[in-house]
Specification:
This protein is of the alpha+beta class. 42% of the residues lie in helices and 27% in strands. It has one domain.
Length: 154
């Protein structure tokens, strides 16, 4: 009987430690996630965008702003809005002169967030806003999957 109690306590202790010490509870895939590169998308008010991926978010942000500046005609403006995501999807929509920029881990979540942002813009601020057009899709690896236009007319 005593052996069963000791074994039960030892098992409970190991399970309990797993909840406090993340090295017990985490798998190698969660470690991969923590060390994965981040992707930044930076935009200017006119819809010009830039993107960069790096292991350091600040370096990726600077790269995205520099990428945007290569296309943007004004000296300032790139980076007025940006997203940072680790192994996730980044989407940019242009709605007339308005921008909808989102980043989420899953593509469906990013699309849903974009719809909610579009709805809020239309409801609260720009009731006559034109239909939105997706102008950029960046996948979890930082690869640009789709581009409608680098700086869409608004």
């Amino acid at each position: 009987m005593n052996k069963r109690i000791v074994a039960g306590i030892a098992g409970a202790l190991l399970v309990g430690l797993g909840t406090f010490d993340s090295s017990f509870a985490q798998s190698s895939s969660s470690e991969d996630y923590l060390y994965a590169d981040v992707t930044v998308v930076a935009i200017a008010p006119d819809g010009t965008w830039g993107t960069a991926t790096d292991s350091v978010a600040g370096i990726a942000r600077a790269g995205a702003i520099n990428d945007c500046k290569r296309e943007h005609e004004a000296r300032i403006g790139c980076g007025y809005r940006s997203t940072v995501v680790r192994q996730g999807w980044s989407l940019l929509f242009r709605c007339g002169t308005e921008n909808v920029l989102v980043a989420e881990k899953e593509l469906a979540d990013a699309e849903r967030a974009a719809l909610l942002q579009e709805r809020e813009l239309r409801t609260r601020y720009v009731p006559t806003m034109p239909a939105c057009v997706r102008t950029l899709t960046v996948d979890p690896n930082g690869t640009i999957r789709a581009i409608t236009a680098k700086a869409p007319a608004g």
